Amino acid sequence: MPQLSKARDYGSVLLGSTGDSQRLKRVRTQFYLTISIVISHVIGIGIVIVLITVGIPEPSVFRRELVWVNFVAVPIVIVAALLIGVVWGTYSTVRALRWAIRGEKPTAADAKAARRVPARLEAIQGLLWLAATIGFTIAYGIVDPQLIPKILFVLGFAGTVVVGIAALLTEFILRPTEAELIAAGFTGGRRRRLRGRAISAWLVGSGIPIVGILLVGLFTVLFDNMDKRDMVVAVWVIGGVALFTGLLLTVLSNSSVVGPVRSVQEGMRRVRAGDNDVDLVVYDGSELGDLQVGFNTMVRGLRERERIRDLFGRHVGEEVADAALRNDPELGGSEQVVATMFIDVIGSTALAASRTPTETVAILNRFFAVIVEAVETNQGLVNKFEGDAVLAIFGAPMPLPDPAGAALVTARQIAAALPSRVPELTAGIGVGYGAAVAGNVGAIERFEFTVIGDPVNESARLSELAKRDSARPLASKVAVDAAGTDEARHWEVLDSEMLRGRSEPTVVCAAIV
Questions:
Q1: Are the CB atoms for 341 and 429 separated by under 8 Å?
Q2: What local confidence, expressed as pLDDT, does residue 1 receive?
Q3: Which residue among 51, 123, 124, 403 has its CA within the 20 to 30 Å range from the CA of 464?
Q4: How many other C-beta atoms can be found within 10 angstroms of the C-beta atom of residue 354?
Q5: Domain boundary residue among 226, 244, 259?
Q6: How far apart are alpha carbons 285 and 267 in whole angstroms?
Q7: Are residue 352 and residue 464 in the same domain, yes or no?
Q8: How many domains does the chain have?
Q9: Phi, psi (rounded to 5 degrees) for 240
Q10: 1, part of any domain
Q11: pLDDT for 481-510, tens place per residue?
Q12: Residues 251 and 333 in one domain
């Protein structure tokens, strides 16, 4: 099934397309996960440095007795945390996604493990920062207990930012994996709801910075060495950090919403343009994924409706199908002036006797194709296939300005085309014209559109007479007189015939060849 755009199957060109190989998907996923872990840690470390040195300068950590912590323990912990976070996170992710790496169909256990990957990575990063927060709070607190709230807040804030960024980036990176799980039928156990994403973005972008500003005010009151200038600088720095982290988290959170919404918008645009061959890749683990599923369900319904309409139109004709779809069809009909054309194969019994059933059907299908093409070209309706005969109607259910002329020109076109396109067959063609009842005939459970009246019988009897010379279709003089002069000049009067089943003679005309 064609997708919207292979460059944006997962909402971003960075994630590739559904047609990529499993190896490429694996390499891309591992690379992006590693980069996301490093970036989130670097951002967290940068926040710590800015807040400790400028944002909350007092009480200061730059003391002689803290040199070993600042210039030995901190670098070691930073490097160790990066290595452990990358190795541990990548290993656990690859282990949970082995089925995807091998190109296998996931099991229920695989789906459960894969959907735990974001939470596991969040837990790993969270544990690393929690350990650092506890360890450094103790280390700095031993030297100066007044440093405890400062270190606790700074590292706690930075760790929360790291976890928040890592969570959103991980969800983004694992979209192809989520898409494979949903495609495999594992639609339950969604990872994160939109409300949770919004709360996380607020917590990191607003909640914790506000707590930090409150703590700065408290430190100003508690510590004599922190003046108003330090407080103003601290508030500005914390506010600036909050602006950065809030914007970053908001952008990441919004991107998780914009991608699925844009895919649905693009799908709707194509559907409005008449293209129902659209199938979105469902990759989101929130309510937006339900939106994508709903869109696909809607489009499948439209495709099925179009398929049924197409089949319906093939069975009863496009005009009848359109009329039935516009209005609730009812039994009965109305009297209309129509032209009818009846075409009957000559020697069909001999044909069936000399050919295999398959060959006979193939020849008849070519014969019917010529008739359908000519009838539809002249805005008529092929009403019935009766064995090796065809009944066509002009002027119902859709009115025509000149139904008689349309039927007559169709008869001549068919007579001219059959010798070259279906040389195995000849047929008698008759055209009638007059008032008839057009409508639905049958029972309410099963009915069909047809025309009943004298023109139908007249055209059928004329087709029998036309078998004498299949090159010259026959028509009643009434039909020829009703046609426009441009068409009437192609016909000539022969004589009167007493057609079978009629009480009065019919003046017969033949096409001029």
A1: yes
A2: 42
A3: 403
A4: 11
A5: 259
A6: 19
A7: yes
A8: 2
A9: -65, -45
A10: no
A11: 999 888 999 999 998 888 877 778 899 999
A12: no
- By residue range, what is the domain housing residue 22? 17-259
Report whether pLDDT(10) > 50.
yes
Note whether 228 and 116 are same-domain residues. Answer: yes
**Amino acid 228: pLDDT:** 65
Long-range contacts from 290-293, C-beta under 8 angstroms, 24+ separation:
291/260, 291/261, 291/264, 292/260, 292/263, 292/264, 293/182, 293/187
DSSP 7: G
User: Distance between CA atoms of 432 and 494, rounded to whole angstroms?
Assistant: 15
- 351, 435: one domain: yes
Average pLDDT, the chain: 79
Residue 453 φ/ψ region, left for φ over 0, alpha for ψ in the -120 to 50 degree band, beta for the rest: left
Per-residue b/e over 481-508, b at no fewer than 16 CB within 10 Å? ebbeeebbebbeeeeebebeeeeeebeb
- Residue 267 within any structural domain of the chain: no
The domain boundary residue, chosen from 198, 230, 259: 259
Q: Is the pLDDT of residue 6 over 50?
A: no
Q: Which residue has the higher pLDDT, 244 or 225?
A: 244
How far is residue 71's CA from residue 135's CA, in Å, rounded to a whole number? 15
**CATH number of residue 479's parent domain:** 3.30.70.1230
| Of the ranges 83-92, 250-259, 299-308, 424-433, the best mean pLDDT one | 424-433
DSSP 139-164: HHHHH-TTHHHHHHHHHHHHHHHHHH
Q: What is the mean pLDDT of residues 2-6?
A: 45
Number of helices (H), then strands (E), belonging to the chain: the values are: 19, 8
Statement: the pTM of the whole predicted model exceeds 0.70:
no
Same domain, 72 and 218: yes
Instruction: Report if residue 5 sits inside a domain.
Output: no
Take residue 378 and report the two structure tokens written for it: 């002249």
Which pLDDT belongs to residue 4? Answer: 45
